[in-house]
Structures are given as C-alpha cells and as structure tokens.
TrEMBL record:
Family affiliation: Belongs to the UbiA prenyltransferase family. Protoheme IX farnesyltransferase subfamily.
PROSITE patterns with a match to the protein in the record: UBIA
Annotated organism of origin: Roseibium porphyridii
Miscellaneous notes: Carbon 2 of the heme B porphyrin ring is defined according to the Fischer nomenclature.
Designated gene of the protein: ctaB
Pathway(s) per entry: Porphyrin-containing compound metabolism; heme O biosynthesis; heme O from protoheme: step 1/1
Segments traversing the membrane: 35-51, 57-80, 101-121, 127-148, 155-174, 180-203, 229-246, 252-272, 284-303
Swiss-Prot/TrEMBL keywords: Cell membrane, Heme biosynthesis, Membrane, Transferase, Transmembrane, Transmembrane helix
Taxonomy, superkingdom: Bacteria
GO molecular-function terms, A-Z: protoheme IX farnesyltransferase activity
HAMAP family linked: CyoE_CtaB
Enzyme Commission number, as recorded: 2.5.1.141
Designated name of the protein: Protoheme IX farnesyltransferase
Reactions it catalyzes: heme b + (2E,6E)-farnesyl diphosphate + H2O = Fe(II)-heme o + diphosphate
Main location: membrane
Length: 311
C-alpha cells in the first residue's frame, strides 16, 4: 500500500473520531512526554559535559529544540503506528486510536514541530547540531518506525540508535562536533535499549502478537529473548563503567556504575531463571523499572561530577 493510500485508509478508520479538535492534553500525549523526559535529560547531560561554554540562553534553546524534536518524532511515530496502536491494550488509549486527534492532525503537528525544532537549533545554535537532530528524527520515524519495526526482530537493536543520539546532539550543540566522550554516552544508551525494551516485550508479548509486530519474543520465543536480555546486560555493565575507564569520570562514578551494572546483570539473570507464571512476570517488571533508574543514575552521576568540577 502506498503512503497516500495508507493515509486515506487511516482517516476512514478514524470513524470513532469525535468531531472536535483535540485538547491540549491530547497534543501533549502525542509527544510521548514520559519516555521523552529521560531522552531530554540525557541530552542535557551531553550538553553539560561538553568542553567549552555555551551561552545559557543558547543552552536552553538547544534543550528545548531537542525536546520538541524528540516529541515531534513521537507524534510521527503515533501517526504511522495508529493501525497497530489500536490493537494493543497498552497503546489503544493514545490520542489517535482513541479518536481524539485525526491522523492528518498528528502528521501536520509532527512535521511542523520537526521542521521548527531543526531550523531553530540550526539557526540559533549551530547547523551540525541541527542536522544531527534532523537525522535522529528521520532515523526514529523512517528507519525504525516505518521500516525496521514491522520487518525484523532486531528492530530495536538498530532502531535504538535513535534514542541514543540525543546526548551526542546536546554535546554537538556546544562543540559543533562529536567526540569519543559523546560516543561513549551514545554507546551506554545503545547497549541499554535492548534489555530495557525486551523485558517489557516479554510481558506484553500478546499485544505484539495480536498486532503482528515481529518483536523478538514473538519471533524467537521467550527463551531466546531471555538469553538476549542477559547477554546485552553483561555487555552493558562494562560500557556503563567506560566513562571512568576512559578517564572522564571519577573513581566514585566507576564504583557506583559498576555496582548498578552488577544489579542490572543480577536482575537479568533472575529473568533468565524464573520462566513461569507470576514470578517470571515480576522479574521482567523489576528489570524494566530498574533499567530506567539505572540510566537516570548513570547520567545524573556524570552531571553531578561535571557540576562539581566546574564549580
Ligand atoms: C527503540 C528503543 C526503545 C523502545 C522500543 C522502547 C520502548 C518502550 C516502551 C514500549 C515503553 C512502555 C511504556 C510506554 O509506552 O510509555 C517504554 C517506557 C519507557 N522508556 Fe523506552 N524504549 C526505547 C528507548 C528508550 C530510550 C532511548 C529512553 C530514554 C533514554 C527510554 C525511556 C523510557 C522511559 C522513561 C519509559 C517509562 C515511561 C513511563 O513512565 O511510562 N526508552 N519504552
Ligand atoms: C531527538 C529525538 C528525535 C529523539 C528520539 C528519541 C527516541 C527515538 C526514543 C525512542 C523511544 C521509544 C519510546 C521508542 C518506543 O518504541 P515504539 O515506538 O515501538 O513504542 P510504542 O509501541 O510505545 O509506540
């Protein structure tokens, strides 16, 4: 089906649309605010860690642009995924499947905010950061959402790069370039994304099967997914310590990130061991929730150290 045909079908499918304009809270929901809050925080840490000084106003502009660009990509993701979001219990209350906002409105909103955030970042901060933001939005919307998500169980491994770029964009907003340090920040999120997501996908397996999305638990089964979660967690733990190993974080960060990494692996091993019933589900939820705490803590520690050393 061509994109135009798809769009027409989606508009007809929105027969449940209540006829009014979506409310402000519906538009805010289109930006996936809770997920994006951590994305924005990692971008902020990238900006704060970068060497050199950016004028505080430009720093705020950069973070706002990254936040709006990230939200816009969420809106475009919801526009494209409306047909599967309506099938999945976790997502069916989103503004498009719930009939609060039409696909056309979401598309226009997402495109407008994407263009606005990229141009503002490019014009006011620097064009390298602006182009990086445009690339990241395109990666999430076109490469992950439109292409990989529905075609391969490795969707989130490759597509996860989109969620890992924001600290590099924050860094680039200050320096106009990339560096080993900013690449390490990318690598932490890149290695973190698969266990973060597969822990949830193991529990929500039925949703993805119903929506015919080839997530790893659907295609390869729960045993293979548990193995994958454990392997990625074991790889993630040393990557989390890399800022210390490479000399841009203190021994305190090294010890804290190693401890958090060991807990991460222990929780992944717990998923690997507990395979049946409520205990298996509880183990998945524990790792999913801890994954968010883990990433937040690593970046918060890095931020704290940069503030102390800059004071
Ligand atoms: C391809 C990569 C990723 C996938 C497939 C993924 C998937 C998910 C899913 C399905 C949820 C469930 C809850 C919801 O829909 O709100 C979720 C929650 C969450 N994700 Fe991810 N995620 C990815 C990357 C990231 C990244 C890069 C971050 C931040 C750096 C992140 C942060 C969060 C947070 C904070 C939540 C909890 C939201 C809440 O409080 O409900 N995720 N993720
Ligand atoms: C600056 C910029 C553009 C940042 C983008 C950040 C980004 C790509 C975050 C990915 C986060 C995420 C929730 C993916 C969800 O996958 P999904 O869409 O398959 O989840 P769903 O089933 O909940 O819709």
């Amino acid at each position: 089906m061509s994109l135009v045909e798809r769009q027409e079908t989606m508009n007809q499918d929105s027969a449940v649309w209540d006829g009014g304009m979506g409310s402000v809270s519906d538009y805010v929901a289109l930006l996936k605010p809770r997920v994006m809050s951590l994305v924005i925080f990692t971008a902020f840490v990238g900006l704060m860690l970068a060497p050199g000084n950016v004028h505080p106003v430009l720093g705020i502009v950069a973070i706002l642009c990254i936040a709006i660009g990230a939200g816009a990509s969420g809106a475009l993701n919801m526009w494209y995924d409306a047909d599967i979001d309506v099938v999945m219990t976790r997502t069916r209350k989103r503004p498009i499947p719930a009939g609060k906002i039409t696909p056309d409105e979401a598309l226009a909103f997402g495109i407008t905010l994407s263009i606005g955030s990229v141009l503002t970042l490019g014009l006011l901060v620097n064009w390298f950061a602006g182009a990086f933001l445009a690339f990241t939005i395109a990666f999430y919307v076109i490469v992950y959402t439109m292409w990989l998500k529905r075609s391969t169980p490795q969707n989130i491994v490759i597509g996860g790069a989109a969620g890992a770029f924001p600290p590099m964009i924050g860094w680039a907003s200050v320096t106009g370039s990339v560096s080993l340090e900013s690449f390490v920040l990318f690598l932490i999120i890149f290695m973190w994304t698969p266990p973060h997501f597969w822990a949830l996908a193991l529990v929500k397996n039925g949703d993805y099967t119903a929506a015919k999305v080839p997530m790893l638990p659907v295609v390869a089964g729960p045993t293979s997914t548990r193995n994958h979660i454990l392997i990625y967690s074991i790889l993630l733990a040393p990557v989390g310590v890399a800022p210390y190993l490479l000399g841009f974080a203190s021994l305190f960060y090294g010890a804290a990130s190693a401890t958090l990494g060991i807990i991460f692996v222990a929780l992944a091993a717990d998923i690997w061991r507990k395979r049946e019933g409520d205990a298996a589900k509880a183990a998945c939820w524990r790792l999913f929730k801890f994954s968010i705490f883990y990433l937040f803590m690593l970046f918060a520690l890095l931020l704290g150290e940069s503030l102390i050393s800059g004071a």
